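Entry: tRNA epoxyqueuosine(34) reductase QueG
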Amino acid sequence: MRIRDSKAMVPTGKYSKEDLIKEEALRLGFSAIGIAKAEPIPDEIKEAYTKQVVSGKYGNMEYLRRNEHLRFDPTELLEGCKSIICLAMNYYPPLKQDKEAPQVAYYAYGRDYHKVVKKRSDKLLKFIRENIDKDVIGRSFADSAPILERYWAVKSGIGFRGKSGMIILPRKGTFFVLGELLITTELKPDKPNTFECGKCTKCIDNCPAKAIDEDGFDATKCLSYLTIEQSDELNDTQAGQLGNRLYGCDTCQKVCPHNRFAQATKETEFMPNKLLFDLSFENLKHLDEQQYIKIFAGTSVKRAGYKGLMRTARALLKKRNKKD
């Protein structure tokens, strides 16, 4: 498959540069990889996105309104960009919290995925530079730039967009974080994924906050938004919807039929801190900032921070006290 010399490995025979890049991505720990041609977003996609943002359904996430020229044209993010390599990494945990404990979304169990995915993407760029195109210029992202990553995930063929808004990887499920590597090397694009959910409405029917319907998704109702992005105190109705969710919500994923294929990640950086499994409502009452750091340092929970986490904790504990 490869010819190795003192400088590089080059494609030979039936194995293309795309084959080599995909093989390396899998070796680096990615679960799926697809390639799309870098080009401006179609007008209908731009209009749909703008309509959603203007509707107010994204709440205080003002960053979604900014940098539209970058968001709608990846060649603005990287001059001379010809290809977008879309990547997915499995975070489904091999061990889970007790169901009665204050729940943390699975993606936040281990090390912050932004750093993990970007680091691996940078390694893939280095591989391309050393083995495919020594002059390549690239930029890697993991939910860290104004790019419509779910659009590109579909365009590259790695998955399709479910009614929940989540990207569903065929025969793998939804428990994946996404990343993109923009490069100036021209690669053969993969076919877009045109699959759809069909008549299934399990994510709609089971959403505890009714944030999903056939017309789309309202982030301001979503429990992930309420526990992570929102800074206001939670009202009684919102607290009632939370159940025992402390950070995020995995309900739409847990009920998705495609997640019957979910396999526990082997990625060591996504393994949970053992202290997480000791978290209970009793010790949540007395959780100070030092204890918070011991449990959640280096994870995505830093998005909410100690103050944000304790805001949700107060709502949960108040609700439990009323029951008692």
